[in-house]
Amino acid sequence: MHFIKLNNLLVIALVSTSLLSSYAYPGFNFGWGGRNHGSRGGISYGLSPQFYQFSCPQANDIVMSVLEKAMAKNMRIAASLLRLHFHDCFVQGCDASILLDDSPAIVSEKNSGPNKNSIRGFEVIDEIKAKLEEACPQTVSCADVLALAARGSTILSGGPNWELPLGRRDSRTASLIGSNNNIPPPNATIENLITFFKRQGLDEVDLVALSGAHTIGVARCATFKQRLYNQNGKNEADVSIERTFYFGLKTMCPRSGGDNNISPLDFGSPRMFDNTYFKFILQGRGLLNSDQVLLSGGVIKTQELVKKYAQDEAFFFQQFAMSMIKLGNLRPITGFNGQVRKNCRRVN
């Protein structure tokens, strides 16, 4: 397990600010306003790793306890929770909008193209939230539950730990349009991926590092079928796929049917958070087009990063942790804005 420590001076300064407000108003960070766009050194203004130090000090222990039991029953849940956090943050920022069900006032993001019939993990989030409400009523936001669950899933899969800024509040809205338009598709080109990430203030380093989350989890045949049979609209396979890998994929993902058949994104160690994903990309064994184009897309920066992460797992872990902090800092709702939902599926 790796613990990433960032910019000691800044962390200490922000902790001091958080402690002062926590003594007066436990669990609430005042004075920073609404949607937050600024961050420095991995810590976003208005967020602090010590946010629940006095109002709910057992918050992370509760999250980890539920995760351990959930992962013992279903190891796929770790990847599902990481994906849930990613798909949340790329729409309206990290505000738990993805958790809202349809209602007279809400058109749920769960029905978007990237999410429908594929996004999972809601029941685990429900269980975590229920236990947090028992211990610390209306204190820990659903947005922070998603961030804590993503980190916990990474740790319990053998990946890095990091100091996680907390204090997000929950949205009262969702955006089906945003979910359809802002989440990178599995068949994206490298240019598309860079554009999707830059829209969020994330760069090529973040793109490659966060793609490394595909070291765990699976993908449906429908998400990579195009690569096997019609990559360029000419009924031909993607030439970048290693041939043995290609024939293996064809057996479980036929030209017709089988769309819901699943394949590991990293078939070497699908349950272990490691750097094998990048090693397979170097061999032409990236499952999704969006995986393999990190190398084959012709962008020198992403090519170099794939090679570095394949060679040095500790370096990948360090960058993944920093990029996850950056992801989690996307436009959080803070201060008096938003709310702390009692039930993550609906507004209060």
Return the structural class.
mainly alpha
Mean pLDDT: 89
Strand segment count: 6
Enumerate how many helices there are, as a single number: 14
Low-confidence stretches: 1-44
Tell me the β content.
under 5%
Radius of gyration: 20 Å
The helical percent reads 40-55%
What is the CA–CA distance across the termini?
A: 38 Å
Largest sheet: 2 strands, parallel
Write the element-wise H/E pattern from the N-terminal end onward: EHEEHHHHEHHHEHHEHHHH
What overall form do the CA principal axes indicate? globular
Order of strands in the sheet with the most strands?
Answer: 1-4
In short:
The protein has 348 residues and is mostly helical. Helix content is 46%, strand content 4%.
Topology at a glance:
Layout: E1 3-4, H1 8-24, E2 39-40, E3 43-44, H2 59-73, H3 77-92, H4 122-135, H5 142-156, E4 161-162, H6 176-182, H7 190-199, H8 204-211, E5 218-220, H9 225-229, H10 243-252, E6 262-264, H11 276-282, H12 289-296, H13 300-311, H14 313-328
Parallel strand pairs: 1-4
Antiparallel strand pairs: 2-3, 5-6
Helix pairs in contact: 2-4, 2-5, 3-5, 3-6, 8-13, 8-14, 11-13, 13-14
Describe the structure in your own words.
There is one protein chain. 46% of the residues lie in helices and 4% in strands. With 348 residues, the chain is mainly alpha-helical. The protein has a two-stranded parallel sheet. A hairpin with a 2-residue loop joins strand 2 (39-40) and strand 3.
